[in-house]
Amino acid sequence: PVWTPHAGLALELRTPTRADLRRPRRLGRVRVSDFGAAQGRLRLSGKSDEDLELALVGPRSRSAWTPATRSGGGFTVDIDVFVDEWGVGRTSLPADRYAVVARTGDGRTVDVVPSRSLWRELPRLEEDSGLHFIPHVAADESLMMRVVPAEWRSSRPPYMRRRLRDEVYPEART
After folding, report:
1. Would you list the DSSP string of 62-121?
2. Residues 82-106: pLDDT tens digits?
């Protein structure tokens, strides 16, 4: 779309060149090469040139910023997925998709992307503390993590829903 004061909004059609199709190389990326889960923590490891803090940020909730432990050119971080948001006890992050976000010591945010080796392993699922962790890649190549309760596969099978609808509910109404 092109805006001109005298003609208003118009669409301009142009043929993309090879230079338009190349993605610009972004500096300062954090590459995650592996993930796992244990004792209510999501463990991410990968490569980075700087000291980092990582967090999971979703539309309804977020984890705390957690400093990464560096060794050589790599890092490891254990992000706690249980939070005490309201002061009434620790609960897991709500089931949702979370962006894996990193920031440097000076507060600058850095892109978090999966390494090629991790990308080849997807889809992959890790289970711990009653939660499933399922990584996926967003359209902008950033790493996302889906956090869902582990019982979602077995708690509401179609057969049980049909029995509730057709047998239990009508009987309870009478």
Report:
1. BPPPEEPEEETTEEEEEEE-EE-SSSS--EEPPSEEEEEEEEETTS-EE-EEE-HHHHHH
2. 877 777 777 888 888 999 999 888 8
